């Protein structure tokens, strides 16, 4: 990035570290899958941290678990509307659905009963399930957002049962290895920052414990580095390689619930936190464990994201820091549109493109990259993209028609003469009497 931009980013980071009295802090900006800038302040031991220094991620761990669950869904092994009892039977909260657990709307208690799990060695699944036998449901499932660390312990067990291995081994095989995230691990390996609490009234440090959380580990166990977390930030923005379909991560970024009522500045998707700030909609996750804070967010519209990690229990406002880093990067060095260039397309689909009409409303159907269709009104109205799922069948990816099927209607000789989209009939001319218009067309046709 330009030296002036890099200085602005470093100044923002340095201000946060100094004002919040953070032992050490690292941050980075990513765009379109690339690490554009990284910075550090403070010390790990006697030297500054770097892009390969591990910090604990806390609840960012949940995003990895959520991706494992969505992979199971994409493979047809589960449905998001399935009750938990279909996959992990015998709990006292088996009516909560998989989607509700992912979005923290399943009604489960926020923390596991007993000693505070973040500072205590965790037991196995049997011990966690036994502790939840009574009074685990605090709200009616689906009624409200209620953040639940327990829910992700449960989802980790769900993954383990389907994969025949721990959630962690599944994450290593299905996510970390394919994405080259070799410095992300359940415990610190190699150079890492130690976790501290900073005394509120003096410049003193207190070491924090970092026990294994056992069955609660899916809620916050992982450690990572700037380099690895930058790759994960890009993943959340859509650079998913072969680990997940881009439309699946887009589904995870869609709003499932709002955290703060009418103001809608914070919400949750399927395993991802959502933030609205000054016209931006960001997706990612924050994290905290005793001795550590972490945040990763990305704006899928611009492809610009940022991350920050610190080894302190409290103090710095990492979410605000990350939002500021994204804004600085986009304001001082806005992303240029990619140059347009022609590409090869399935020529047989050209006959479907062009002008269509839903009643008297004109729509344009265009071929777009990836072998998909884009259907949008000439003026204003509902627009969606569609991907092919079978002969003459296309699945809606976003907007009003997300999840709906677009089917091509043809005459006896194979000529396309109408589109059937969730019972809406689109024709080449308005209310074409030769097409199956619902309710028919007046026999006298158009008139003055």
TrEMBL record:
Beta-lactamase-related domain residues: 11-317
Entries under Gene3D superfamilies matching the protein: DD-peptidase/beta-lactamase superfamily
InterPro entries with a match to the protein in the record: AmpC-like (IPR050491), Beta-lactam-related (IPR001466), Beta-lactam/transpept-like (IPR012338), DUF7586 (IPR056008)
Stretches assigned to the DUF7586 domain: 345-428
A Pfam family it matches: Beta-lactamase
Protein name: Beta-lactamase family protein
């Amino acid at each position: 990035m330009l030296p002036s931009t890099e200085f602005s980013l470093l100044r923002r980071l340095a201000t946060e570290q100094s004002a919040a009295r953070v032992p050490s802090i690292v941050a980075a900006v990513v765009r379109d899958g690339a690490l554009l800038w990284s910075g550090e302040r403070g010390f790990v031991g006697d030297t500054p941290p770097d892009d390969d220094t591990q910090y604990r991620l806390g609840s960012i761990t949940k995003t990895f678990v959520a991706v494992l669950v969505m992979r199971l869904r994409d493979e047809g092994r589960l449905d998001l509307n399935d009750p938990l009892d279909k996959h992990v039977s015998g709990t006292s909260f088996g009516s909560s659905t998989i989607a509700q657990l992912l979005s923290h709307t399943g009604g489960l208690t926020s923390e596991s009963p007993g000693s505070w799990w973040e500072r205590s060695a965790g037991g196995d699944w049997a011990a966690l399930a036994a502790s939840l036998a009574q009074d685990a449901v605090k709200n009616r499932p689906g009624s409200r957002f209620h953040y639940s660390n327990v829910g992700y312990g449960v989802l980790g067990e769900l993954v383990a049962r389907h994969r025949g291995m721990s959630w962690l081994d599944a994450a290593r095989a299905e996510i970390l290895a394919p994405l080259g995230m070799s410095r992300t691990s359940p415990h610190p390996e190699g150079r890492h920052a130690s976790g501290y609490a900073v005394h509120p009234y003096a410049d003193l440090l207190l070491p924090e414990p970092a026990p294994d959380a056992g069955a609660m580990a899916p809620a916050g166990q992982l450690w990572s580095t700037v380099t690895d977390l930058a790759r994960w930030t890009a993943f959340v923005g859509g650079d998913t390689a072969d680990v997940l379909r881009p439309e699946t991560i887009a589904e995870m970024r869609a709003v499932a619930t709002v955290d703060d009522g009418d103001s809608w500045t914070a919400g949750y998707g399927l395993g991802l936190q959502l933030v609205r700030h000054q016209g931006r909609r960001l997706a990612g996750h924050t994290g905290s464990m005793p001795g550590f804070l972490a945040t990763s967010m990305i704006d899928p519209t611009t492809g610009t994201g940022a991350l920050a990690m610190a080894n302190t229990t409290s103090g710095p406002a990492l979410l605000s820091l990350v939002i500021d880093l994204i804004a600085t990067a986009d304001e001082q060095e806005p992303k240029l549109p990619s140059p347009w260039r022609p590409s090869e397309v399935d020529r047989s689909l050209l006959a479907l493109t062009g002008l269509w009409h839903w009643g008297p409303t004109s729509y344009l159907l265009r071929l777009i990259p990836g072998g998909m269709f884009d259907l949008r009104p000439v003026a204003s109205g509902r627009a969606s993209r569609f991907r092919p799922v079978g002969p003459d069948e296309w699945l809606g990816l976003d907007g009003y028609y997300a999840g709906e099927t677009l089917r091509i209607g043809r005459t006896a000789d194979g000529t396309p003469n109408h589109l059937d989209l969730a019972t809406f009939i689109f024709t080449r001319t308005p209310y074409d009497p030769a097409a199956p218009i619902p309710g028919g067309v007046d026999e006298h046709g158009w008139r003055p």
